[in-house]
Amino acid sequence: MKRDQKIKVGISIGDINGIGVEIILKTFEDPMMLDFCTPILFGSVKVLSFVKKGLGSQVALHGIDTLEKVIDHKVNVYNVWKEPVKIEFGEATKESGAYALKSFTAAVKALKNNAIDVLVTAPINKTNIQSDTFTFPGHTDYLAQELEGDAMMLMITDTLKVGLLTDHVAVKDVASHITPELITKKVETLYKTLQSDFGITKPKIALLGINPHVGDHGVIGVEDDVVMIPTLEKIRETGKIIYGPYAADSFFGSGNYKNFDAILAAYHDQGLIPFKTLSFGKGVNYTAGLDHIRTSPDHGTAYEIAGKNTADPNSFREAVFAAIDIYKKRNGYKVLTENVLKISPRKSGGRGR
Fold it and tell me: Global pTM?
């Protein structure tokens, strides 16, 4: 990307009956946002204009039918569909799920084709988006299929990063999913992400235990002793700085999390409950470990306030900024790595006689 080109931020608009379009419009109500990036909304000018009118928004929308017509300093709306769509704020309808899927898959296709630089996704409903072609528990799992790499859900703020060993897995199945191979792979993904996407040269990572009190030496459960501890010992032999497993109940309340660059939680709620408690409204969901960048706000469709003009855009705005920052850091890391590889050691040799 040339220096004078803006980063192209593709945005899927999420469930049209939720707060997705509202928080997108509120984010770009500030014209200064267009100094940081060129937004491309995947949806419909008709839908965006309907919500815009209800909000009394002053955002100028630039409708396009091909991605070649994207213009900098404009809020571009790529018309994925043109037919009228009924919007029923607060209702999880089959129709709203179908259009959320159209927006998302079109944006992912553009991301794969490098027509956009990064992707920011507005919230979907994981139930009404299901179809014959989408049978995934969320954005992350679909992206893992479509993009290269090992996907990891990583919740981030400037001061807190929480990754997950398992994400959308039922609690009763968590222990059986956690294997030495999974732990090793997730630690490797998190370690590389902290280096390439956040500029942390020697990351310091904490791992939370599976069972209460890390199993109390087998009294509550054996998984921490049998699976986690031996695996962490092997990982440390590679030179990585990783501590744990820690008892999750006191880890955050004690402030111990502040001593680490990132925390790896065993399962969804173990990591996300403390993360959202500490940072709700400012947190970002980042799909780490893939060859393309995707972020999203740390909340859902919020049907209960949809259409009421009360949704807070802060988390979505942070998701846009995070995507831009990660894109820049990753590109900088690539350049640095390539330059290092180009430098070959000097060949030794004596003076000629």
Answer: 0.92
Question: pLDDT digits over 334-346, tens only?
Answer: 888 877 767 745 5
Contacts of 76 (CB under 8 A, 6+ apart): 38, 39, 40, 41, 62, 63, 64, 69, 70
- Is residue 348 over pLDDT 60? no
Tokens of 133: 């072609």
- Residue whose C-alpha is closest to residue 313's, from 273, 282, 338, 270: 282
Q: How many CB atoms lie within 10 A of CB 71?
A: 10
- The radius of gyration of the chain from alpha carbons, rounded to an integer in Å, stands at 22
Rounded Cα distance between 161 and 109, Å, is: 28
Residues 203, 178: contact at Cβ < 8 Å? Answer: no
Region at 297 (left for phi over 0; alpha for psi -120 to 50; beta for the rest): beta
The whole-number pLDDT of residue 162 equals 98
